Amino acid sequence: MKKEAEMEKECRLAAPSKKAVRACGFHCIKVKDLGVKLENEVILEHVNLHIHCGRLISVIGKNGAGKSTLIRAILGEVPYTGSIEFRDVRQKTAEKLRIGYVPQHLNIEKNSPTSVYDLFASFISRVPVFLCKKKPVEEKIKKQLAMFQAEDLLNKRVCDLSGGQLQRVLLSLAVCPLPNLLLLDEPVSGIDQKGMDSFYQTIHRLKTRYDLSILMVSHDLEYVRRYSDQVVLLEKTVIKQGTPEEIFKSREYKETFVSG
Amino acid sequence: MLAGIYGLMESFLPFSFMKYDFIKNSFLAILIITPLFGLLGTMIVNNKMAFFSDALGHSAFTGIALGTLLGIANTDLSMAGFAVVFALVLNVIKRRKTISADTIISVFSSVSMAAGLVMLSKNGEFSKYSSLLVGDILSIQPKEILLLFGIFLLTLVFFGCCFNALHAQSVHEALARSRGVPVAAVDNAFSVLIALIVMFSIRWVGILIINALLILPAAAARNLASNMREYHRFSVAISLFSGVTGLLLSFYNDTATGPTIVLAAAAVFFLSLGAKVVFHL
After folding, report:
1. Do B228 and A106 touch (CB under 8 A)?
2. What is the ipTM, given to two decimal places?
3. For residue B86, what pLDDT is reported?
4. Which of A38, A146, B19, B202 is deepest in the core (most CB within 10 A)?
């Protein structure tokens, strides 16, 4: 089991502190010539991305364009060619990239006796959750959930949460400990308008307050336009990237989403 | 030591039939097997491995047949060895994801069942092994109880160190991997543990009903529990209760013990289902 002080350090962002760490702007993640081939079919090729900390990058594209595969490659779930590097620009050194990941769905079906505490503690603590509930772990999870106004959900069953509630829980988990890169794979599928607004505001706050980059796959083009710093249009490879205005005006965008 | 335990049982359980040693033995075995199954079953149900553990049970015949063919005196060893290999091979194929898991498990299950039956039935000798189908807990010996106790301890150790990882990977594999959980290793270790437990208890519980004993208590507990602690406590308690009730009923009514225990567990399951519907748990 981790020492409490260590746990505290790892989750230093847990408390909504006023002197929050801002993006330092000196870290960047470089995806160079990334390619993925599955069963002799090219899913992605020559993907080049440059992700600075403090930025929200949205990946858009048609179904089957390889958006989720890109996420899976960065996670190391599928074999890829090319490289993914995390660098400190000042020291010009490569560092180990810490990834926070928010999946689309969990394998938790109705009637599953997994509470939010169980879910969270299974990932951050070694004290077996079937045996006992530890006060320090519980306190830490509560603090973490409080970042996303989800502390009341601690003892609820995960299968009873609404889509929006589940996303808030998964976000709290993904940023504990604070990652360098947060990967969101279509994070708001099946959430109502109000939930979407609050989700994107939360993401925005996260990005401005903490030293991390966010890479998000999304279908909600309107929200992508409003909240992203950079948009990547994907179709096997990056066919266009730039600011939201640049992308939404581009010929490539129109070909993909308007006429296509 | 055994005499001491026997003495304790006689003073705490003042039933007339407790004077028989074979009853004491089977009672002790039930006190070990049922909590073990209750504990293990929770994660079998949670990780959707019910079909997998069933297939493992079916592979017992092949294990015995191979042991006999190879001239291994203790066929328990060949049975366990075969089941471990069987479980690991199934896992490898399952991970390739080219065929759906339930199909591949079904294929393996039927093949190993048929192969075992073919080999064992040669020269009309199958009747020697038919007791394996329903099991016979009344014939268990102290040495075998001790072995079960060892496996029980092993399971506790496994749950103690790997439970969170096992639970995390059941929730989302990629998420677990992204946080450094050795998903494949944990999954393999759990599969091997299931294989060992199924094989070392199959003589007492029986191929036909072993899976019911693994699944029913956990399934009943799911109807009532709202978190992992309740889930495991309920499951172990229901399993133990059904085991003792079933053993007593089978003794009084002169029925096979294993199936009677299953019926007791099934009764609890339906009661819990009723409670869930009535009280909106």
Report:
1. no
2. 0.87
3. 92
4. B202
